[in-house]
C-alpha cells in the first residue's frame, strides 16, 4: 500500500470514531506538538496553490477564504470554501481550507473528513499528514497521530516539527526509548530549539526521571525565558520530586507566559491540583471548576436538561440530581460526600444520582432512599459528553450538579472530611461467601494486590512501579496474596511465581473488571488491600476495607496531608521519586511482616 493510501485509510478510521468511555482523564504535561494548520507558513503555501489554479474565480474565492482564516473569521472561510466545492467538489485546496476552518471551530470529525478529501486530491500530502497528526493528537489518539507524524517525517526528514511531534506521540504510547532516539540527533544538530529540549524533558518525566527532566526544562527556559509550556512541564517534574511550592511558582509563570486559550485552560486546571497538593483546599476546589473550560479538549460536556446548581444556592428541601464525573475511581471517591448531601437536602427534598452502570447495585444498597440510575458517556468529535438518560423524570428536578462541584461546599478543608468508617455498603452475603472461599487460599493474612490501571499512557504510567520491583513486598513471609487486579495480568502473576516463588491466589468465579459489587464484597472479606490508586482500591476504601495506598510525593487527593482524607482507615506509603520505588516497597514489606507476626 502506498503512503498516500495508508494515510487515507487511517484518516477514514479516525473520522468515524465514536466510542463509549467510562470517564475523563485530564492531561497534565503539555503535549508540546509543533505547528499550526493556520500558521503563516501553512497559509502562504495554500495561497500559492490557489494562485496556480486556472479558474480565476475559484482562485479569488479561495484567496478570500485563506484571508478569512488569517483574520480568524473561520465561519466566513467555511462558507467560501463550501461555495467553491458546490461548483467543483474535486477542488483539493478548498477541502484543505474547509478542514482548517472546521478544526479551528472544534468540529473535529467534520474537519477530519475534509482533510481526508484533500488528501485524495492534493499531490503534496506531507503537510496534510502533519495537520492530520496534530488533529489526531489533539483528539487523544496518539497511535493514529504517530502514523501521520511518521509519514510527515518521511516527507520532511529534516523538519524539526516532524521530529518533535513524532516524539510526542511515541512518548504517549510509552515508546520512550524510540522517542529519545529521534530527539537526540535533532538536538545535537541544533541545540537552540527550546521545544526539543522541552519534549525531551517530558519523555524523561514519563520515564519517572524527574531530576533529569528538570535539567532539560531548565535548558529550554534558558534559551527562551518566556516559554510558557516549559514552565508548565517543569512544574510537573517538581511535583514528581515533592517540590510543590516550586511547582506552583512555575505554574504561575506558565500562566503569565501563556500563548493560547487551550494552554491557559490546561495551566489553570494544573494550578488547581497543585493548590490541593499544598493543602490550600478551599482555593483548590474553586479553581477545580476550570475542568469544565470549553478550551480544554478533554473537558466533559454534560447534557442535562435541568437548571445547574451553584455553590451559593441552598440544598435544603431541593429535588436534586447529581451526576458523577471523571473516571470510575473518582466516581467512588467523590461519593464520600453523598451521606452529607442527603442530610443537607433533608426529608422535604429528594436526590437522584447517575453513576457508571457497574456501580448501580452497590449504590442502591448503600443509599436505598435515593434514585440511582446509569449515566451514559461517549467520546465524540474529540469531546467527552455525559448524559443522564435514565433519570425517571428530569422535569421534576429543581437543580442538578456534577458531584465534584459540591466539594467546595462540603469539603472546604482536609479537616472537613468525616471520620466515617465507610460510605458504601458491600453485600453482607457475598462478604460471607468470600470469607468462606478464602479459606482455600494459603495460610496467613489475606492481602489483595493492585499494581496498575487500565489506562497507562506515557504520563500516567510513571505513577505505577514496574511489577518486578514488587519483589520485597511479595516475598514478605507469612502473607497470603490475593489477586484483585483487573485487566490482563497473567504475565505478572506468572512472573511472581517464576521469579519470586510466590503464588498469587486467584479468586474463582469473579470478573474483576465487571463485577464491581462482588469486588467490593471480596475486598471487605480480605484482611488488607494494598497497591496503587485505581478503581478497585477506591471501592475497597469506600466500603471500609483496610487499605494501604502507594502514592507519589505530591498526590493531590492527599490534600497536603500525610493521610488520605477520603478514607480515614487508609495508610499511605509515599515515594519521594518515581524513579526509585525501592524505599517504598521495603517499607511496605516491613509493615507486612509486622502484620503477619501480629496475626500469629
Give keywords.
Serine Threonine Protein Phosphatase 5, Tetratricopeptide repeat, 4-stranded mixed beta sheet, alpha/beta, 4 domains, 600 residues, 50% helix
Structure characterization notes:
This protein has 600 residues and is of the alpha/beta class. The chain folds into 4 domains: 1-173, Serine Threonine Protein Phosphatase 5, Tetratricopeptide repeat (Alpha Horseshoe); 189-297, Tetratricopeptide repeat domain (Serine Threonine Protein Phosphatase 5, Tetratricopeptide repeat), CATH 1.25.40; 300-412; 428-599, Rossmann fold, CATH 3.40.50. It has 26 helices and 13 strands. The chain has helices at 3-15, 40-51, 56-70, 74-87, 92-104, 108-121, 126-138, 142-155, 160-172, 176-189, 194-206, 210-223, 228-240, 244-256, 261-277, 281-288, 328-334, 338-345, 360-366, 407-410, 428-437, 471-474, 490-500, 516-525, 535-542, 582-599; strands at residues 18-20, 300-303, 319-323, 350-355, 371-374, 376-380, 383-387, 399-402, 446-450, 480-483, 528-532, 547-551, 571-574. The strands form 3 sheets. It has a 5-stranded parallel sheet with strand order 10-9-11-12-13. Helix 10 (176-189) packs antiparallel against helix 11 (194-206).
What is the rounded Rg? 26 Å
Physical arrangement of strands within the biggest beta sheet: 10-9-11-12-13
CATH class of the largest domain: Mainly Alpha
Number of domains: 4
- Kindly report how far apart the N and C termini lie: 66 Å
- CATH architecture field of the largest domain: Alpha Horseshoe
Please summarize the sheet with the most strands: 5 strands, parallel
Total strands: 13
